[in-house]
Design goal:
The structure is a single chain. The chain is of the alpha/beta class. Strand 12 and strand 13 form a beta hairpin. Helix 10 runs antiparallel to helix 11, helix 10 packs antiparallel against helix 12 and helix 12 crosses helix 13. The termini are far apart. InterPro entries: AAA_GajA/Old/RecF-like (IPR041685), Bact_Antivir_Def_Nuclease (IPR051396), P-loop_NTPase (IPR027417).
């Protein structure tokens, strides 16, 4: 799928091709790189979740009940052997499916992350956000409605047609190439409604599958990963301290009757202290949940908090091997995850220390969440599509995990930045992982070019963009990629400027000596 993003926040134009396995985004600060990958993540999250609900009987029944009466009028006018084109009603139902599943979720995630849509209108061009998704013969255009100022489906192009054919006896729906034929005997309207909706949902499910292009699941590792982990640690510490506190009066206190009076009427409490503490804990947790946290960061918190280590977490899967390589070659020690306390610990090689990653070096605290994600989440049980619907398309490749990561080089020495890029190459080549990166690292960029030269990364799976500023907002300019690597239109100018500055300073110094 190709995604085009226009006039979203500071971005005037950004386009990416999700068929690629490695996406690298570079550019100066504050030009919209994080906006770009966040919108892509939210789009994919909404698509994945929409795909996974289509097979439920409740969902299908609800869709059948909402069919317009017009389609029944067309059916009743048919004689045996007659056929009617209902492509317009079919298209309207696909639009409704988009609105009720994908678009509803995408609106919510944009609202949670950025607020009202006015907050992400491009203030430089003055234009409202527009997004286009193109895959196969289908295209979906999303824009802002004039009334209500919410995101809506502005256009839909589909390559399939659908027809109703009246027959003497009902038969299963035919899916012939791009044409769908729904059969009806002129009597059993309940059967017809079910068949028509299943045909629509079948097509819609394949649309989503084509859009996702073999992506099984997605994960987002934000910038400042260690700081985000510290928020979780602090919340766990508060809860533990509050649960074990003896500062509040206990049930044997002489003021017990007064404490009971402060609690809700009509309830008898054997231990009001526990009840008070539980109320405080629940209040604290509800406040944490209601914090204004972006959807990607909230997903990051949730996935960390839901990790449940098992005996297979150190298996021979390629991802586990790569995680061990990162521990050995970069971290210089092992990262463990405690399933009971939900904490990460680091043991330096050759010692028996067990340090909370909060108390380790900035490199360890920043990189440990990546190791934990790879070991316990990315290598976890494979999510599966639960539609249970027939698939018209064959020849699917194995599904892949897509990991978004902002500035993976943070707190790493250049030597370790290069080693980390090698680990990313291994994830792509050996573990069916797709990677979407933003970076300010010339070393990571140069190592990637060397990996392409060494043919350790296939040039055909790499896509790179540099975000540059314009009067209408930032534009993501594609960087040429060939067997020699990626054209450098980001770092080289500064390198040359610094070199020329140094030569000029040396010449001045020599002139002063003379």
């Amino acid at each position: 799928m190709k995604i085009q993003i226009h006039d979203f926040g500071p971005i005037h134009h950004f386009e990416c091709d999700l068929a690629k396995d490695l996406h690298l985004i570079v550019g100066e600060n504050n030009v919209g790189k994080s906006y770009g990958i966040t919108v892509v993540y939210l789009l994919l999250k909404a698509l994945v979740e929409s795909r996974d609900i289509l097979g439920s009987a409740e969902f299908l029944h609800g869709r059948a009940m909402q069919l317009p009466e017009e389609i029944f009028d067309r059916v009743s006018a048919l004689n045996v052997g007659d056929e009617a084109d209902v492509g317009d009603i079919f298209r309207e139902e696909i639009v409704r499916l988009l609105k009720d599943t994908f678009l509803k979720r995408f609106r919510d995630y944009i609202g949670e992350t950025y607020g009202p849509i006015d907050h992400v209108t491009n203030k430089f061009s003055g234009e409202s956000p527009r997004i286009r998704l193109a895959f196969g013969s289908e295209e979906i255009d999303i824009g802002v409605a004039e009334v209500g100022k919410v995101l809506e489906v502005k256009g839909l192009t589909i390559g399939s047609s659908i027809a109703l054919r009246c027959v003497a006896e009902n038969r299963p729906t035919d899916y012939e190439a791009d044409n769908i034929v729904v059969y009806h005997d002129g009597r059993d309207y309940e059967h017809f409604k079910a068949a028509f909706i299943i045909a629509c949902v079948h097509f819609f499910g394949n649309m989503l599958k084509d859009a996702l292009g073999g992506i099984r699941d997605i994960h987002y590792l934000p910038a400042l990963r260690s700081a985000a982990y510290q928020v979780l640690s602090a919340s766990r510490g508060f809860r533990a301290a509050l649960s074990g506190s003896r500062a509040l009066p206990n049930a044997d206190d002489k003021n017990k009757r007064e404490d009971e009076w402060l609690l809700p009427d009509g309830e008898l409490f054997k231990n009001p202290t526990v009840k008070i503490q539980d109320q405080l804990i629940n209040t604290f947790e509800s406040q944490i949940e209601s914090l204004d946290i972006s959807t990607p960061l909230n997903d990051y918190f949730r996935e960390l908090s839901e990790i449940k280590p098992d005996k297979n977490s150190q298996g021979n899967d390629p991802i586990h091997r790569i995680a061990k390589d990162i521990e050995r070659d970069i971290l210089g020690g092992n990262v463990q995850f405690d399933g009971e306390t939900q904490q990460m610990f680091y043991t330096p090689r050759g010692t028996d220390l067990r340090l909370d990653v909060d108390g380790a070096s900035s490199m360890v605290s920043e990189l440990s969440p990546l190791v934990v994600f790879l070991r316990y989440i990315v290598a976890g049980p494979r999510a599966t599509t639960r539609t249970g619907l027939p698939d018209m398309r064959k020849g699917d490749s194995s599904p892949k995990t897509l990991v978004f990561m902002e500035e993976p080089e943070a707190h790493l020495h250049p030597v370790n930045q290069a080693r980390l890029m090698s680990a990313f190459a291994a994830l792509i080549f050996a573990a069916d992982v797709k990677i979407f990166l933003t970076s300010h690292s010339n070393y990571l960029f140069t190592k990637l070019n060397n990996l392409i030269l060494a043919e350790e990364i296939d040039v055909d799976v790499v896509e790179a963009h540099v975000f540059k500023w314009s009067k209408a907002g930032s534009k993501a300019l594609p960087l040429a990629v060939d067997r020699l690597g990626i054209d450098d239109e980001n770092f080289i100018d500064l390198a040359e400027a610094l070199y020329e500055e140094k030569i000029d300073l040396i010449e001045r110094m020599n002139a002063d000596v003379r």
